[in-house]
Amino acid sequence: MYLHLGQSVVVSEETIIGIFDLDNTTESHITRRFLGNAEKTGSVTNVSDDLPNTFVVCSDGDVNRVFLSQLSSQTLSKRTGTMRFE
Fold first, then answer.
1. How far is residue 33's CA from residue 29's CA, in Å, rounded to a whole number?
2. Alpha-carbon gap, residue 10 to 49, rounded angstroms
3. Element (H or E) spanning 12, and its range?
4. Per-residue pLDDT for 86 more than 80?
5. Pair 54, 68: CB distance under 8 Å
6. For the chain, what is the domain count?
7. What is the pTM of this model?
8. 66-71 contacts at long range (C-beta below 8 A, 24 or more positions apart)
9. What does the pLDDT average to over 48-69?
10. Does residue 62 form part of some domain?
């Protein structure tokens, strides 16, 4: 199955490592460092016209990508059919 992240971007659900809410997770310096490093290496793709609400981490073998989406993490999780909030 595929997950529509916004605009015309879809990713395979098999490659998704996690779906994270930006407001809640960026309070941690570890998450901010992770996102900063991903941006420096060119691994971040912004699929949002507005301010992003969510980031989705995907891995396809050795290639890791971070997608910024304006859709909420709850909406994206519902689209996958698996709701896992911890």
1. 6
2. 16
3. strand 9-12
4. no
5. yes
6. 1
7. 0.88
8. 66/35, 66/38, 67/5, 67/9, 67/11, 68/22, 68/44, 69/5, 69/6, 70/6, 71/5, 71/6
9. 92
10. yes
Cα 44 from chain centre: 9
Q: Which residues pair with 30 in a beta bridge?
A: none
Give the integer Cα–Cα distance in Å for 25 and 62.
24
- Per-residue DSSP letter, 27: T
Domain with 25 in it? 2-80
Q: Are 47 and 67 in contact (CB under 8 A)?
A: yes
Q: Is residue 85 part of a domain?
A: no
Look up residue 62 and give its two tokens.
């050795």
Answer whether 19's CB lies under 8 Å from 53's CB.
no
